[in-house]
Amino acid sequence: MDTKITKIEDLGWDEFFESNRVKLGLDVFAVARVIAEHKGAYKVKNIQGEYLAKITGKQMFEAMSREDYPAVGDWVVIAEAEQEQAVIKKILPRKTVMKRKNSGKNETQIIATNIDVAFVIEAVDRDYNLNRIERYFAIAKDSNISPVVILNKIDLISQEELDLKITEMKNRLGDVEIIPTSNSTEEGLERLQKYITKNKTYCFLGSSGVGKSSLINKLLGEEIIKTEKIGARSGRGKHATTVREMYFLANGGIVIDNPGVREVGMTDASTGINNSFNEITALAKGCKYFDCTHIHEPGCAVLFALETGKIDKDKYTNYINLKKETGHYEMTQSEKKKKERQFGKFIKNAKRDLKKFRHKDY
């Protein structure tokens, strides 16, 4: 059940948003937080209530990319239209943005904005994957979001197997917060509840079927979010959660449920990768060449550490793959911007030539 919203801080509002609101001269307008995104519409919430909101045609026209549209977690300036309906006038500056590259496309998809902690959920019974966790960590750290691992469905394995997985994760990920949980036995739920604090926003991430929605239902104290059983043949979960949506817990914490994502494509997350692989980043400072790719160059400190067993082979391979993905994305985006500039120049020249042509005729 949603906690009662009595003041704007209950929705996650803080000094960052207030100062930007004043700076932009928007302090006389109503604000609300985007709590759900549907096709062509958004659900927004403030202390007055919830509204079904749309953006203006001008905003659509001026948008250069999907990032210019509202996303779940955003704070927006609204104007009330009819009863329980509103128009989104402007998006306030974002404190944090977690995003990924769409599968098969070179487009960025915003996962959520203005979040404080990213809960990366992995289940022990399915496609448990350390590489995927590292990907989530990289995109979280790129936006200064704290990542935490929730290792779910631990009732399906022995304590020895659980200890082994936790040790494996700490060896790969370093000093990371790991919360083992079980929806069936409710083990770890009290610890998870204590971790979630009032007025902070937490985003739940992971593949379909790992138990994200079930965990949130447990935190809410009732079955609000629809869940599906794992397919017996495929062992994969169905996408029970089809939209991103925000929920408010009784203790004042704010959580966002996300559709299941199997592929986590990298965008321009170089900083996040360096922060997630700080051991390799530190070693790279000892490389002979400044622009070392750590793949084939002589005098590479990273390759030397790999050959002597100082760094994990799987960790190194994942680091190289993420670096390649990020480099490809950044290069493609640079080419896209160059083409956009060229097209803009073409339009400008065409308009100028058209004016000259008209002038000659008349």
Fold and architecture overview:
Helix content is 35%, strand content 21%. The protein is α/β, with parallel strands linked by helices. Among the domains are: 8-91, OB fold (Dihydrolipoamide Acetyltransferase, E2P); 97-257, P-loop containing nucleotide triphosphate hydrolases (Rossmann fold, 3-Layer(aba) Sandwich), CATH 3.40.50. The longest helix has 49 residues, at 313-361. The protein is globular. The N and C termini lie far apart (71 Å). Residues 231-239 have low confidence and may be disordered.
Give the secondary structure arrangement, pairings included.
Layout: H1 15-23, E1 30-38, E2 41-46, E3 49-55, H2 57-62, E4 75-80, E5 85-91, E6 97-101, E7 108-113, E8 117-123, H3 130-141, E9 146-152, H4 159-173, E10 178-180, H5 189-195, E11 201-205, H6 212-220, E12 245-248, E13 254-257, H7 270-276, H8 278-284, H9 301-307, H10 313-361
Parallel strand pairs: 3-5, 8-9, 8-11, 9-10, 11-13
Antiparallel strand pairs: 1-2, 1-4, 2-3, 4-5, 6-7, 12-13
Helix pairs in contact: 3-7
Summarize this entry quickly.
The protein has 362 residues and is an alpha/beta fold. It has helices at residues 15-23, 57-62, 130-141, 159-173, 189-195, 212-220, 270-276, 278-284, 301-307, 313-361, and strands spanning 30-38, 41-46, 49-55, 75-80, 85-91, 97-101, 108-113, 117-123, 146-152, 178-180, 201-205, 245-248, 254-257.
